[in-house]
Amino acid sequence: MYRILLADDEQIVIDSLTFIIERNFPGQVEFLSARSGGDAIELCQANKVDIAFMDVSMPGLNGIEAIKAIKASSPAVIFIVLTAFDRFEYAQQAVNLGVYEYLSKPVNRNKIVEVARSAMSQVDVLRRKQLSEIQIREKLDSVVNIVESDFIYSLIFPSEKAGDIASYLDFFGIKDPSFYFMTIEVSDLIEASRQDVYLTARDIVLSAAHCIVGPFMRNRIVVFVPFVPGPTPESDVEAIKGAVRLIHSRMGAKLSLRVKIGLSRVESDLTRSLSAYNDSLKALISTDGDSGVVHCADCEESLSSSDSYPADLERRLLDRAIAGDVQSVHGIFAGLCQWIRARFPDDDGVLRYKLMDLLSIIRFQTREIQNQFGGFAVWKDTWRQVAAEQDLSSLERYVLSCVDECLTVVNEHKQSRMSPIIVRACAIIHESLAEDISLEEISRRVEISPFYFSKLFKEETGENFIDYLTMARMQKAKDLLREPSRSIKEISAASGYADPNYFSKLFKKVVGVTPTEFRESL
């Protein structure tokens, strides 16, 4: 459909043009008409006009003046000038304004049809160009989102490729290396509204700060915020907390959901990105319902001055366990053990009781999902092992290995409910753990686009591709470590890591101990 404006002070001319065009292009044209230059301008401002047939001599503003005014606000309109005055100056002005055609009255009917058809073809070209530009912008937006996600993952899951971070910083135009992490957690998130919640939260954060917003990781959003440090660390903390409280307030009002935000300290060394991220997580875990925003410095102060058991931390552990979130469970588990050992250094019975209590609850949760899991014999052996173990570090590792068995059952249950595409993708991943595999390669093999695969994988598994791959490789490494004949170097390569040193560091980050220590505990 083409919207055509017919501007002429003679109604008979408007009626004649309408008849000719409508007869030759039936059902393809919507007409607007104006009897003066001022009316033509108003119609173009109120409507998207594709083609305008414009008389030169009209009351008030003439056609040339009207074209000039319309061009200023609607440059895409194609103008065809009609005039009974064959004056050179009009033609020259029309050419200077980029008029598509200049016709002298009276005009042959065939000429009107020819010019209209040609102008419509030009409109089609412009529309295709605009559509192409829109599609390109959409693709660029999706690419930027992927790059932002990759950047966040590279910071919180560092690789041996240090040059990658510098490339990301250059891409985003970040010059100052100082930064802090903001980790946002949205409670009571409904899957159907997940995308809307994310977009709203992202808009609020981006409107308040120049930053890089990561994707939803379960119900969390990690934000990297470049920051220029002030005169003192204390002033930085207050400035950051003030700005983030505004973000928290806006999110609470817009989302009508409970939002918590944990903040890290300001770092100037990007190699400390993982440490900063962990600080924001610790702060997040310690947030309460009243403040909603906690800086890691406040977290450390409150923890050192309080002897009350961190019940919120325990609830978080159980919540992450039922979700199959291995990485979060390991981190929270280590934090709970550390708290108990620090408060009761001379009474290891407290740690034994609490670990057995937690394991009982997690196993009960797992049986709710898979009723064939566990049994009396398993419990008898577990309690015997817990009671007999004298080394508390070994005790913690043993209980954590029992928790890992539960998490494996939870994740296998989740996988059994996945779509065939993701089931196939997971099978390919586990078959290729020793290879240098990527999201793009897996998406190609399951024959869907990388962008859609990334989105579907996250929705189906609850984890992003990198998290899933890392945990699968760590599980394979733990299985291989049970074989005394294999060296750490061989296990590293078989798990997909060419650099044994990087493998050992990553293993300790995920599992809590080095590969050697894990093997010695078996």
Report what the structure shows:
This protein is α/β, with parallel strands linked by helices. Among the domains are: 130 residues, Rossmann fold; 133 residues, Alpha-Beta Plaits, CATH 3.30.70. Strands 2-1-3-4-5 form a five-stranded parallel sheet, with helices on both faces. A five-stranded mixed sheet has the order 7-8-6-9-10, sandwiched between helices. Helix 7 packs antiparallel against helix 8. The radius of gyration is 33 Å and the shape is elongated. The protein starts with a strand and ends with a helix.
Summarize, please.
With 522 residues, the chain is of the alpha/beta class. The protein contains 22 helices and ten strands.
Strand and helix layout:
Blueprint lengths: L1 E6 L3 H14 L4 E6 L2 H10 L4 E5 L7 H11 L4 E6 L4 H9 L4 E4 L4 H48 L6 H10 L6 E8 L7 H15 L3 E6 L2 E7 L6 H23 L3 E5 L9 H14 L6 E3 H10 L5 H12 L3 H18 L4 H22 L6 H13 L3 H25 L3 H12 L7 H7 L4 H12 L3 H17 L6 H7 L5 H12 L3 H7 L1
Parallel strand pairs: 1-2, 1-3, 3-4, 4-5, 9-10
Antiparallel strand pairs: 6-8, 6-9, 7-8
Helix pairs in contact: 1-5, 2-3, 7-8, 9-10, 11-12, 11-13, 12-15, 13-15, 19-20
